[in-house]
Structures are given as C-alpha cells and as structure tokens.
C-alpha cells in the first residue's frame, strides 16, 4: 500500500492529540477540532458541536485514564485527491482503573475525519468515532490517589 503524501502531518496531528489527552489539556485540544465537530464515543452515542463533545465525552474520560496513545505505527489513512480532507483509522491504547483502583488495559480504535483550508494549513477534526475493543469495561474510575 502506498503511503499518502500527508501521512507525516496526520501522524503529527495524532501525536499532538495524544500529548493533550495525557496532559488533560482540553483548551489546547479544542483548537484542533472544528466548532461543528460530530462525535460518537463511550459516553456520547451521537453528539454535535465541539464544546458539547468536550463536556459530554472528553471530560468524562481523559481525567480517569493513564498512558493514552494513538498507535500511529498501525494507522491507515485515506487522503482526498485535493489533499484537503482525510479519513484516518487508528488503534489506541490506555490504562483504565477499576472502582477499587486496579488498572486494566483500556484499548480501542478510532476513525477520524479531518480537513484543512489549504495544503499549508493545520488539520482540524470534523468527525471522531472512538470505541473500546470488545470486552473492555466502558468506565474508568481514575487513578488511585497514591498513583496520581
């Protein structure tokens, strides 16, 4: 399979998003997504508008997990002929915590649609669908205080 010419910039987008999830930095991550973002996720079956996605999905998950990472080495991407839109499928991994504080593998996959205004412009997420792998608990209770 031939790599699309924009793979490096797409990897950079997901690496940056990884860093922001780990830092629980909603404000910086917000700028990476379109105001009309549409998302599907663990806590939101169907949610529209970036701020609603942040409130209804990101704030429910990011503070409760550890070690989040998009596994870009396994990423598949399809870039439009004009190179202004891309669809990316990428697995991710993280650590979740049971109610008693025991960690568990909390892994899944994402499909993300991105677009940009010009070839030199930044990618912006316009649709995200993050889902857990089958059999993975859908709730993480956060790191035990001793580990935080």
UniProtKB/TrEMBL annotation:
<dbReference type="GO" id="GO:0016853">
    <property type="term" value="F:isomerase activity"/>
</dbReference>
<feature type="region of interest" description="Disordered">
    <location>
        <begin position="128"/>
        <end position="148"/>
    </location>
</feature>
<dbReference type="Pfam" id="PF13474">
    <property type="entry name" value="SnoaL_3"/>
</dbReference>
<keyword id="KW-0413">Isomerase</keyword>
<protein>
    <submittedName>
        <fullName>Ketosteroid isomerase-like protein</fullName>
    </submittedName>
</protein>
<feature type="domain" description="SnoaL-like">
    <location>
        <begin position="12"/>
        <end position="132"/>
    </location>
</feature>
<dbReference type="InterPro" id="IPR032710">
    <property type="entry name" value="NTF2-like_dom_sf"/>
</dbReference>
<dbReference type="InterPro" id="IPR037401">
    <property type="entry name" value="SnoaL-like"/>
</dbReference>
